[in-house]
Amino acid sequence: MSMLSVRAVLLCACALLLHHANGELRGRCPSEEASCPPRASPCSADDECGEKICCNTSCGRACVDPLYTGCENVKLSTERISRALAAENSRGGRGMLPSLRTPRCRTTDGEFEEIQCDNEIVSSCWCVDAAGFEVPGTRAPAAGLVNCTRAAPCAAHTCRMLCPLGFELDSRGCPLCKCRDPCTSVTCPGQLSCQLEEAPCLRPPCPPVPTCKRGRSLQNICPVGEPLLISETSRPFLCGTDPGKPNCPPLYRCLVESGNDYGVCCPASLELQKAGTCPAPTTTDLECGTPCAHDLECPSMQKCCDGGECGRHCTLPHNVTMCTQQKMLAELLVVSEKEGKGYVPQCKDDGSFESKQCSRNGLVCW
């Protein structure tokens, strides 16, 4: 290889590294002027909007949630999961696991590049459709060998299964009689499991996004967040929708599954904030927690905080203790109690329990 060729390769590699180093996705404004969002903050630039962006709306320029392309949605989710897995492996002293395949998005418009490859050094490559799914018969051992205009012939496919996302492909890139599941290749941290989520995107088609979520049980039956627990216990506060059964406190609603007489109180608003303040983002401690979008996706006392390079993830907040957390929950519960009834924990200035606790009316102390 000539010195000129070597120099060209090095320049391309440097440009690629710079692109990835500065490739934080900010999202885009909706293609059509959005209606006036509720509680929208007026703005003149993105810097005034935090995690939102400044866009034209029917009520002037305001901070709105950014939209990403289908490729960018999948890329962001995959990168969050990869960071959480890397942190979990680091804490457990385990070796590095193979990284999840991250789709390549065009720098011009954010859509899927026509040719995608896996993450291995000796990689397979293939063509994809507009939704990012592999086109049958296009897989090859290198990107230079992929021909997206002339797919290789596959055996006749007579499977009669109805698969919304198409069929799984074999090692040669030909269809199997098995529905495609993007979660098959995703490993989630901890006790989380992969679930497909429909996510809005800048331009259709919007592919479903593999996301790590908790499995369903009585403790996590709520669509988002955790059920309200009885103070000082791990038992959920039971409620009912029939007359005479306990009602949920404000900011919660009763969710009763079919066939059950009682249910649990689930957070009624994604805006519900847990106690405490988020720590400042850091670049030195890259132990990323579970990826999240809001407080209700985080377990126990953890909040959803901005972690710098980690993105938004669950972490223990500042200025919160077991006492302050129980006090916040108890204050929600006693709203529906009669005057003076019930018990709200008393906390010291440092957040610990007062050594002497009393009922709200002060008649009983211990």
UniProtKB/TrEMBL annotation:
CDD domains: TY (cd00191). GO terms for biological process: cell-matrix adhesion. Keywords: Disulfide bond, Secreted, Signal. Disulfide bonds join C358-C365. GO terms for molecular function: serine-type endopeptidase inhibitor activity. PROSITE patterns: ANTISTASIN, THYROGLOBULIN_1_2, WAP. Residues 154-179 form the Antistasin-like domain. PANTHER family: PAPILIN-LIKE PROTEIN, SECRETED MODULAR CALCIUM-BINDING PROTEIN. This is Uncharacterized protein. It comes from Manduca sexta (Tobacco hawkmoth).
